[in-house]
Amino acid sequence: MKVAYKFRLYPNKLQETVLDATVETCRHLYNNALAARKKVWEEEQRSLTYNQQAVELTATKNHHQKAVFSQVLQDVLRRLDKSFKAFFRRVKAGEEPGYPRFKGEGWYKSFTYPQVGFKLEGSRLTLSKIGSIGSSSIARLKAKSRPVPSRKIKSVVGMRSW
Exposure of 56 by Cβ count < 10 A (0-12 exposed, 13-18 middle, 19+ buried)? Predict the structure, then answer.
């Protein structure tokens, strides 16, 4: 059974800047990967896969992308791949397809640490390449009778609401 916990984090000004930069880097990667898929299809009539784009990402990272944890960037490509799979599934089923869209500023609001790169320590969440961010809601949850997840935390999703 999957259980989700939602915590309000309280980043300082520097962490807010880093979080905003992370989301913007993810948005730019999403748009660039979408443009690459569109260009390859228009020019060569073939599709790019997640694996091809992930290999290209490791070879062509810019300085903004190097400041973001690698699995966060890989998850952006997985998200795009999932959008294309849903698009082709709808085309095949004869439904209204809805081609994946480019994300404008403010329309890309989250990033995911899918496996590693994060640690819950006391009332603080430590994210790789971002730092340790405090949360009073984690402390309140620990004070109640139920402990904070005794199970292994599988992923962390950061959503823009700071």
Answer: middle
